[in-house]
Protein backbone atom coordinates (compact mmCIF):
# COMPACT_ATOMS: atom_id res chain seq x y z
CA UNK A 1 0.00 0.00 0.00
CA UNK A 2 1.12 3.58 -0.63
CA UNK A 3 2.29 5.50 2.39
CA UNK A 4 0.31 8.60 3.22
CA UNK A 5 3.39 10.67 2.28
CA UNK A 6 3.42 9.21 -1.26
CA UNK A 7 -0.32 9.73 -1.59
CA UNK A 8 0.19 13.33 -0.54
CA UNK A 9 2.81 13.74 -3.24
CA UNK A 10 0.72 12.34 -6.09
CA UNK A 11 -2.18 14.48 -4.92
CA UNK A 12 0.17 17.46 -5.10
CA UNK A 13 1.15 16.51 -8.69
CA UNK A 14 -2.47 16.17 -9.69
CA UNK A 15 -3.12 19.64 -8.29
CA UNK A 16 -0.14 21.01 -10.23
CA UNK A 17 -1.44 19.47 -13.44
CA UNK A 18 -4.87 20.95 -12.88
CA UNK A 19 -3.36 24.38 -12.20
CA UNK A 20 -1.14 24.11 -15.26
CA UNK A 21 -4.04 22.99 -17.46
CA UNK A 22 -6.07 25.94 -16.20
CA UNK A 23 -3.26 28.36 -17.01
CA UNK A 24 -2.91 26.94 -20.53
CA UNK A 25 -6.62 27.18 -21.15
CA UNK A 26 -6.66 30.77 -19.90
CA UNK A 27 -3.80 31.65 -22.27
CA UNK A 28 -5.71 30.20 -25.23
CA UNK A 29 -8.77 32.13 -24.16
CA UNK A 30 -6.75 35.34 -23.79
CA UNK A 31 -5.69 35.00 -27.42
CA UNK A 32 -9.34 34.84 -28.45
CA UNK A 33 -10.32 37.65 -26.09
CA UNK A 34 -8.41 40.26 -28.05
CA UNK A 35 -9.83 39.15 -31.40
CA UNK A 36 -13.35 39.05 -29.99
CA UNK A 37 -13.32 42.40 -28.22
CA UNK A 38 -13.68 41.06 -24.66
CA UNK A 39 -11.39 43.74 -23.21
CA UNK A 40 -12.40 47.19 -22.09
CA UNK A 41 -10.91 50.01 -20.10
CA UNK A 42 -12.22 51.56 -16.91
CA UNK A 43 -11.04 54.93 -15.68
CA UNK A 44 -10.24 56.04 -12.14
CA UNK A 45 -10.05 59.71 -11.26
CA UNK A 46 -6.91 61.41 -9.93
CA UNK A 47 -7.53 64.52 -7.85
CA UNK A 48 -5.35 67.55 -7.12
CA UNK A 49 -5.28 67.90 -3.32
CA UNK A 50 -4.72 71.68 -3.42
CA UNK A 51 -7.67 72.53 -5.62
CA UNK A 52 -9.84 69.45 -5.09
CA UNK A 53 -10.23 69.31 -8.88
CA UNK A 54 -9.80 66.17 -11.00
CA UNK A 55 -6.48 66.34 -12.86
CA UNK A 56 -6.50 63.06 -14.76
CA UNK A 57 -7.59 59.44 -14.93
CA UNK A 58 -5.77 56.11 -14.81
CA UNK A 59 -7.02 53.65 -17.43
CA UNK A 60 -7.38 50.12 -16.06
CA UNK A 61 -7.78 47.03 -18.21
CA UNK A 62 -10.70 44.65 -17.71
CA UNK A 63 -11.38 41.26 -19.26
CA UNK A 64 -15.00 40.25 -19.35
CA UNK A 65 -14.88 36.53 -20.07
CA UNK A 66 -18.03 35.24 -21.83
CA UNK A 67 -18.48 32.37 -19.32
CA UNK A 68 -16.23 33.16 -16.36
CA UNK A 69 -17.31 36.78 -16.11
CA UNK A 70 -14.82 39.49 -15.13
CA UNK A 71 -11.29 38.14 -14.63
CA UNK A 72 -9.13 40.34 -12.35
CA UNK A 73 -6.00 41.85 -13.97
CA UNK A 74 -3.85 40.35 -11.20
CA UNK A 75 -4.86 36.97 -12.64
CA UNK A 76 -4.64 37.48 -16.40
CA UNK A 77 -1.84 40.04 -16.79
CA UNK A 78 0.86 37.63 -15.55
CA UNK A 79 -0.46 35.02 -18.04
CA UNK A 80 -0.47 37.61 -20.82
CA UNK A 81 3.11 38.49 -19.91
CA UNK A 82 4.29 34.87 -19.87
CA UNK A 83 2.68 34.12 -23.22
CA UNK A 84 3.79 37.34 -24.91
CA UNK A 85 0.15 38.27 -25.50
CA UNK A 86 0.75 41.41 -23.45
CA UNK A 87 2.40 42.84 -26.58
CA UNK A 88 -0.74 43.00 -28.77
CA UNK A 89 -2.93 43.60 -25.69
CA UNK A 90 -0.68 46.44 -24.54
CA UNK A 91 -0.79 48.01 -27.98
CA UNK A 92 -4.59 47.76 -27.97
CA UNK A 93 -4.68 49.44 -24.52
CA UNK A 94 -2.55 52.32 -25.81
CA UNK A 95 -4.77 52.89 -28.84
CA UNK A 96 -8.03 52.50 -26.92
CA UNK A 97 -6.90 54.82 -24.10
CA UNK A 98 -5.82 57.50 -26.57
CA UNK A 99 -9.07 57.19 -28.52
CA UNK A 100 -11.18 57.44 -25.33
CA UNK A 101 -9.17 60.42 -24.11
CA UNK A 102 -9.45 62.21 -27.45
CA UNK A 103 -13.24 61.70 -27.48
CA UNK A 104 -13.59 62.75 -23.81
CA UNK A 105 -11.67 65.95 -23.06
CA UNK A 106 -13.15 65.96 -19.52
CA UNK A 107 -10.86 63.00 -18.67
CA UNK A 108 -7.89 65.35 -18.67
CA UNK A 109 -4.61 63.50 -18.82
CA UNK A 110 -4.94 59.72 -19.09
CA UNK A 111 -2.43 57.38 -17.48
CA UNK A 112 -1.73 54.01 -19.11
CA UNK A 113 0.15 51.12 -17.50
CA UNK A 114 3.07 49.61 -19.40
CA UNK A 115 4.31 46.09 -18.69
CA UNK A 116 8.05 45.43 -18.45
CA UNK A 117 7.60 42.97 -21.32
CA UNK A 118 6.56 45.80 -23.64
CA UNK A 119 10.08 47.21 -23.33
CA UNK A 120 11.37 44.19 -25.25
CA UNK A 121 9.97 45.92 -28.35
CA UNK A 122 12.36 48.44 -29.91
CA UNK A 123 9.36 49.97 -31.70
CA UNK A 124 7.48 50.80 -28.47
CA UNK A 125 8.04 54.57 -28.97
CA UNK A 126 6.63 54.27 -32.48
CA UNK A 127 3.56 52.44 -31.13
CA UNK A 128 2.98 55.32 -28.74
CA UNK A 129 3.46 57.84 -31.53
CA UNK A 130 1.00 55.98 -33.76
CA UNK A 131 -1.62 55.71 -31.01
CA UNK A 132 -1.38 59.50 -30.59
CA UNK A 133 -1.51 60.16 -34.32
CA UNK A 134 -4.45 57.80 -34.94
CA UNK A 135 -6.52 59.41 -32.15
CA UNK A 136 -5.38 62.99 -32.57
CA UNK A 137 -4.64 63.13 -28.83
CA UNK A 138 -2.02 65.75 -27.91
CA UNK A 139 1.03 64.00 -26.43
CA UNK A 140 0.77 66.10 -23.26
CA UNK A 141 -2.53 64.40 -22.41
CA UNK A 142 -0.90 60.96 -22.23
CA UNK A 143 1.02 59.63 -19.25
CA UNK A 144 2.70 56.22 -19.17
CA UNK A 145 3.15 54.41 -15.86
CA UNK A 146 6.29 52.32 -15.38
CA UNK A 147 6.81 50.32 -12.21
CA UNK A 148 10.02 50.43 -10.25
CA UNK A 149 10.57 46.74 -11.03
CA UNK A 150 10.42 47.41 -14.79
CA UNK A 151 13.24 49.91 -14.41
CA UNK A 152 15.37 47.57 -12.38
CA UNK A 153 15.00 44.77 -14.90
CA UNK A 154 17.17 46.16 -17.65
CA UNK A 155 17.88 49.82 -17.39
CA UNK A 156 20.18 49.92 -20.39
CA UNK A 157 17.26 48.82 -22.55
CA UNK A 158 14.42 50.62 -20.77
CA UNK A 159 15.92 54.08 -20.38
CA UNK A 160 16.68 54.73 -24.08
CA UNK A 161 13.11 53.74 -25.00
CA UNK A 162 11.73 55.98 -22.25
CA UNK A 163 13.88 58.86 -23.54
CA UNK A 164 12.36 58.49 -27.00
CA UNK A 165 8.84 58.31 -25.54
CA UNK A 166 9.46 61.43 -23.47
CA UNK A 167 10.77 63.21 -26.52
CA UNK A 168 7.28 62.84 -28.03
CA UNK A 169 5.98 65.04 -25.20
CA UNK A 170 4.36 62.15 -23.32
CA UNK A 171 4.58 62.16 -19.51
CA UNK A 172 6.19 59.27 -17.65
CA UNK A 173 5.26 58.34 -14.07
CA UNK A 174 7.01 55.90 -11.76
CA UNK A 175 4.36 53.51 -10.41
CA UNK A 176 4.15 51.47 -7.20
CA UNK A 177 6.96 53.58 -5.74
CA UNK A 178 8.32 52.16 -2.50
CA UNK A 179 7.81 48.49 -3.37
CA UNK A 180 10.90 47.99 -5.52
CA UNK A 181 14.53 48.70 -4.99
CA UNK A 182 15.13 51.76 -7.10
CA UNK A 183 17.70 54.05 -5.60
CA UNK A 184 17.61 57.81 -5.63
CA UNK A 185 20.16 57.40 -8.43
CA UNK A 186 17.53 55.68 -10.57
CA UNK A 187 15.12 58.52 -9.99
CA UNK A 188 17.79 61.04 -10.93
CA UNK A 189 18.89 59.12 -14.01
CA UNK A 190 15.58 59.71 -15.76
CA UNK A 191 13.34 62.79 -15.83
CA UNK A 192 10.12 61.29 -14.47
CA UNK A 193 7.09 63.55 -14.39
CA UNK A 194 5.39 62.02 -11.35
CA UNK A 195 5.93 59.64 -8.43
CA UNK A 196 3.03 57.31 -7.57
CA UNK A 197 3.39 56.13 -3.98
CA UNK A 198 2.26 52.50 -3.70
CA UNK A 199 -1.03 51.89 -1.99
CA UNK A 200 0.54 49.53 0.55
CA UNK A 201 1.62 52.65 2.45
CA UNK A 202 -1.95 53.91 2.78
CA UNK A 203 -3.10 50.97 4.88
CA UNK A 204 -0.55 51.86 7.56
CA UNK A 205 -0.87 55.61 7.44
CA UNK A 206 -3.41 55.82 10.27
CA UNK A 207 -1.52 53.50 12.60
CA UNK A 208 2.20 53.64 11.87
CA UNK A 209 4.47 56.62 12.52
CA UNK A 210 7.00 54.96 10.19
CA UNK A 211 4.52 55.08 7.31
CA UNK A 212 4.02 58.80 7.94
CA UNK A 213 7.80 59.22 7.97
CA UNK A 214 8.16 57.45 4.65
CA UNK A 215 5.35 59.50 3.16
CA UNK A 216 7.14 62.66 4.29
CA UNK A 217 10.41 61.43 2.78
CA UNK A 218 8.83 60.56 -0.57
CA UNK A 219 7.15 63.97 -0.72
CA UNK A 220 10.59 65.43 -0.01
CA UNK A 221 12.02 63.50 -2.97
CA UNK A 222 9.23 64.85 -5.17
CA UNK A 223 10.04 68.40 -4.01
CA UNK A 224 13.73 67.90 -4.71
CA UNK A 225 13.03 66.60 -8.20
CA UNK A 226 10.29 69.21 -8.69
CA UNK A 227 7.68 66.62 -9.63
CA UNK A 228 4.29 65.88 -8.06
CA UNK A 229 3.73 62.93 -5.72
CA UNK A 230 0.45 61.04 -6.08
CA UNK A 231 -0.76 58.73 -3.31
CA UNK A 232 -2.61 55.62 -4.53
CA UNK A 233 -5.22 53.58 -2.71
CA UNK A 234 -6.72 56.38 -0.64
CA UNK A 235 -9.79 54.87 1.02
CA UNK A 236 -10.49 56.96 4.12
CA UNK A 237 -10.97 60.59 5.03
CA UNK A 238 -8.29 60.29 7.70
CA UNK A 239 -5.74 59.09 5.12
CA UNK A 240 -6.69 62.07 3.00
CA UNK A 241 -6.13 64.45 5.93
CA UNK A 242 -2.68 62.94 6.62
CA UNK A 243 -1.78 63.37 2.95
CA UNK A 244 -3.03 66.94 2.91
CA UNK A 245 -1.13 67.78 6.10
CA UNK A 246 2.09 66.39 4.62
CA UNK A 247 1.66 68.33 1.38
CA UNK A 248 1.00 65.44 -0.99
CA UNK A 249 0.08 66.79 -4.43
CA UNK A 250 -2.42 64.31 -5.85
CA UNK A 251 -4.59 61.42 -4.68
CA UNK A 252 -6.29 58.41 -6.25
CA UNK A 253 -8.41 55.75 -4.57
CA UNK A 254 -11.86 54.47 -3.73
CA UNK A 255 -12.55 57.54 -1.52
CA UNK A 256 -12.27 59.77 -4.60
CA UNK A 257 -13.77 57.32 -7.06
CA UNK A 258 -13.77 53.65 -8.02
CA UNK A 259 -12.62 52.50 -11.45
CA UNK A 260 -15.66 53.03 -13.67
CA UNK A 261 -16.59 53.06 -17.35
CA UNK A 262 -15.85 56.29 -19.19
CA UNK A 263 -19.18 58.16 -19.05
CA UNK A 264 -21.10 57.49 -22.23
CA UNK A 265 -19.02 54.40 -23.05
CA UNK A 266 -20.88 52.03 -20.66
CA UNK A 267 -22.37 49.92 -23.43
CA UNK A 268 -19.93 50.68 -26.19
CA UNK A 269 -18.36 47.67 -27.87
CA UNK A 270 -14.68 47.44 -27.12
CA UNK A 271 -12.09 45.92 -29.36
CA UNK A 272 -11.77 46.55 -33.07
CA UNK A 273 -14.92 48.63 -33.21
CA UNK A 274 -16.98 46.09 -35.13
CA UNK A 275 -20.30 45.08 -33.65
P1 LIG B 1 -1.86 49.46 -10.48
O1 LIG B 1 -1.23 50.02 -11.69
O2 LIG B 1 -1.15 49.71 -9.17
O3 LIG B 1 -3.36 50.00 -10.46
C1 LIG B 1 -4.03 50.42 -9.32
C2 LIG B 1 -4.88 49.30 -8.77
O4 LIG B 1 -5.40 49.69 -7.50
C3 LIG B 1 -6.10 49.00 -9.63
O5 LIG B 1 -6.36 47.61 -9.53
C4 LIG B 1 -7.20 49.77 -8.90
O6 LIG B 1 -8.49 49.26 -9.16
C5 LIG B 1 -6.79 49.54 -7.47
N1 LIG B 1 -7.30 50.56 -6.57
C6 LIG B 1 -7.60 51.85 -6.84
N2 LIG B 1 -8.01 52.51 -5.75
C7 LIG B 1 -7.96 51.63 -4.73
C8 LIG B 1 -8.26 51.72 -3.32
O7 LIG B 1 -8.65 52.75 -2.78
N3 LIG B 1 -8.07 50.59 -2.58
C9 LIG B 1 -7.65 49.42 -3.14
N4 LIG B 1 -7.50 48.37 -2.33
N5 LIG B 1 -7.35 49.31 -4.46
C10 LIG B 1 -7.49 50.40 -5.24
P2 LIG B 1 -6.72 46.74 -10.82
O8 LIG B 1 -7.55 47.54 -11.76
O9 LIG B 1 -7.24 45.44 -10.30
O10 LIG B 1 -5.32 46.53 -11.49
C11 LIG B 1 -4.33 45.78 -10.85
C12 LIG B 1 -3.02 45.90 -11.57
O11 LIG B 1 -3.10 45.33 -12.89
C13 LIG B 1 -2.59 47.35 -11.80
O12 LIG B 1 -2.02 47.85 -10.62
C14 LIG B 1 -1.59 47.17 -12.92
O13 LIG B 1 -0.37 46.74 -12.41
C15 LIG B 1 -2.22 46.04 -13.71
N6 LIG B 1 -2.91 46.60 -14.86
C16 LIG B 1 -4.17 47.11 -14.96
N7 LIG B 1 -4.41 47.53 -16.22
C17 LIG B 1 -3.28 47.31 -16.94
C18 LIG B 1 -2.90 47.51 -18.29
O14 LIG B 1 -3.64 48.07 -19.13
N8 LIG B 1 -1.65 47.11 -18.67
C19 LIG B 1 -0.79 46.54 -17.77
N9 LIG B 1 0.41 46.16 -18.21
N10 LIG B 1 -1.11 46.34 -16.49
C20 LIG B 1 -2.35 46.72 -16.08
CA1 LIG C 1 -0.67 51.99 -12.37
CA1 LIG D 1 0.22 51.48 -8.77
CA1 LIG E 1 0.39 47.71 -8.51
Helix fraction, binned, reads: 40-55%
Indicate the low-confidence ranges by residue numbers. Answer: 269-275
Bound molecules: ligand C2E, calcium ion
* Strand neighbour order, sheet with most strands: 1-2-4-5-6-7-8-9
- How far apart, in Å, are the first and last alpha carbons? 60 Å
Beta fraction: 15-25%
Rounded mean pLDDT is 90
- Quaternary structure: single chain
Outline:
globular
Our Rg estimate from Cα atoms comes to: 20 Å
What's the total helix number? 10
Number of strands: 10
Order of helices and strands: HEEEHHEHEHHEHEHHEHEE
Q: Major sheet: size, sense and barrel closure?
A: 8 strands, mixed, barrel
**Structural classification:** alpha/beta
Tell me about this structure:
The chain is α/β, with parallel strands linked by helices and 275 residues long. Helix content is 48%, strand content 20%. It has helices at residues 4-35, 73-83, 86-103, 124-135, 148-153, 155-167, 184-189, 200-205, 209-225, 237-246, and strands spanning 39-48, 54-65, 69-71, 109-113, 142-147, 171-177, 194-197, 229-231, 250-251, 260-261. It has an eight-stranded mixed β-barrel with strand order 1-2-4-5-6-7-8-9. A hairpin with a 3-residue loop joins β2 and β3 (69-71). α3 runs parallel beside α4. The longest helix is centred in the first third of the chain and has 32 residues, at 4-35. The protein is globular. Mean pLDDT is 90; it is low at 269-275. It binds ligand C2E and calcium ion (3 copies). Residues 175-176, 196, 232 line the site of one calcium ion. Residues 9-36 form a coiled coil. Keywords: Coiled coil, Membrane, Transmembrane, Transmembrane helix. Residues 258-275 are annotated as: Disordered. Residues 23-273 form the EAL domain. This is EAL domain-containing protein.
Amino acid sequence: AKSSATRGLSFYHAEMDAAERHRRRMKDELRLALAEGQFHLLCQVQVNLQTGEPCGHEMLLRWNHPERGPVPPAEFIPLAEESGLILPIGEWVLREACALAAANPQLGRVAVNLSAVQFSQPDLPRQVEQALAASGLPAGRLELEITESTLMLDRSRTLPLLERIKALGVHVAIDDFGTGYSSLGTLRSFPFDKIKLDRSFMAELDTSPQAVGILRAVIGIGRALEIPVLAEGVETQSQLEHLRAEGCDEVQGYLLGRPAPVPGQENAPSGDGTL
